[in-house]
Amino acid sequence: MSFLQPSRSPWPGRMLSILRIVTAACFIIHGTQKLFNWPPSPQPMHVELMSQFGLAGVLETFGGLAILLGIFTRPIAFLLAGEMAVAYFQVHFPRSFFPVLNGGDNVVLFCFIFLYLSVAGAATWSIDHTIASNRFDDSR
Asked: How far is it, in rounded angstroms, from Cα 2 to Cα 12?
């Protein structure tokens, strides 16, 4: 088999699951730091829950948890990609055009990984996959 042909291995789906899980775990930490000051920040945050920053913390914590579990992955990933686009253009872009200079590297990466997940889905190790597999098995 040529390296240019699509793989028949189970590993692409598994690696997509690993990418989803690791990304979500990193993303959740941003939310818990905003909402619960955990892990503790050198400059403790006092976030109003009904503010844009509070909404970001809720989306990052609970949207990240949904992505980690792989449930409702496509719509939630699309929502989180939008959140990251807003965060980038409101907070980072005004500092500089270049993400390496404006501190927005992680925001850009989160945005595009979530955008990819909104198209690709949760992959093999997910609740979405389990539900879809059971649905397919029940329809026979």
From this structure: 16
Q: Report the distance separating Cα 29 and Cα 57, nearest Å.
A: 9
Asked whether the beta carbons of 24 and 65 are under 8 A apart, the reply is yes
pTM above 0.85, yes or no: yes
Tokens found for residue 58: 């809720």
Domains of the chain, residue spans: 11-134
| 26-75 pLDDT tens trace | 999 999 999 999 999 888 888 899 999 999 999 999 999 999 999 999 99
d(CA 93, CA 50): 24
Amino acid at 113: I
